UniProtKB/TrEMBL annotation:
Signal peptide: none
Domain UvrC family homology region profile intervals: 56-133
GO cellular component: excinuclease repair complex
InterPro entries membership: RuvA_2-like, UvrABC_protein_C, UvrC_RNase_H_dom, UvrC_RNase_H_dom_sf
Chain intervals with Pro residues compositional bias: 1-10
PANTHER family the UniProt entry points to: UVRABC SYSTEM PROTEIN C, UVRC/OXIDOREDUCTASE
Single GO BP term: DNA damage response
Organism: Streptomyces montanisoli
GO MF term set: excinuclease ABC activity
Name of the protein in its database record: Excinuclease ABC subunit C
């Protein structure tokens, strides 16, 4: 198949925080191709909010770069069509970095490794990876910092980790007595009592049970500040 023409984005020296390069007069957005992307259009998620409503852009993206091949590109294009977005070009950057996939094409466009256009697409793809990793790390850190121990006076992150490591999980810490908490090095009775009060105040409700089958409908899981039982 004859090589198709790719959109010609301007040169870029920096990358935007949302995964697109900060280019004057034109913007690109990058979506990571993940397992199941071919079914759910993961590459176009950046165009909707958490409730599925289309986002409003002061500077709308002109190019969506999907980290994947033909299936991911097709899924992203379908998702954009469903949103009524018809003014954003879509392409995919496959594992073989010189292969660029376009919607509806059975064969990829092969660009020279020295191509400035290929370099720009790689920059957008790499920024999407960096942003996704940074976001997931921040999300995990927030989850660790948000929990029933947050309101205990004088109990910082380091001392929370000591408690969780000693007992193994928030659930087991919740089951401990004040005397057992006092046995942890560096924890006096006053702090132990504050920990016990905080955990008692935030104790999860008993799980709902299907009386006919005995099936637990809602798991009893503690959130934040520690691991699972």
């Amino acid at each position: 198949a004859a090589p198709a023409a790719l959109p010609g984005p301007p040169d870029t020296d920096a990358a935007r925080a949302d995964g697109g390069p900060a280019v004057p007069g034109g913007h690109a957005s990058a979506g990571q191709g993940v397992a199941g992307a071919a079914e759910d259009g993961a590459g176009a998620r950046g165009f909707t909010d958490e409730d599925g409503r289309p986002k409003r852009f002061a500077y709308p993206p002109q190019l969506l770069v999907v980290d994947g091949g033909q299936p991911q590109v097709a899924a992203a294009k379908r998702a954009l069509d469903e949103l009524g977005v018809d003014d954003v070009a879509v392409c995919g950057l496959a594992k073989r970095l010189e292969e660029v996939w376009l919607p509806g094409d059975d064969d990829p466009v092969v660009l020279p490794r020295s191509s400035e256009g290929l370099y720009l697409l790689q920059r957008v793809r790499d920024e999407a990876h960096r942003f996704a990793i940074t976001y997931q790390r921040a999300k995990r850190a927030k989850r660790m910092k948000s929990g029933p121990l947050d309101d205990v006076p004088g109990l910082g992150d380091a001392r929370k980790r000591i408690l969780i490591k000693h007992f193994g999980s928030v659930k087991r810490l919740r089951q401990a007595t004040i005397e057992q908490i006092c046995e942890v090095p560096g924890f006096g009775r006053k702090t132990a009592e504050s920990v016990a009060v905080a955990l008692a105040r935030t104790a999860p409700a008993a799980p709902a049970v299907n009386t006919a089958t005995g099936e637990i409908i809602e798991d009893d899981r503690d959130g934040g500040n520690g691991g699972n039982d």
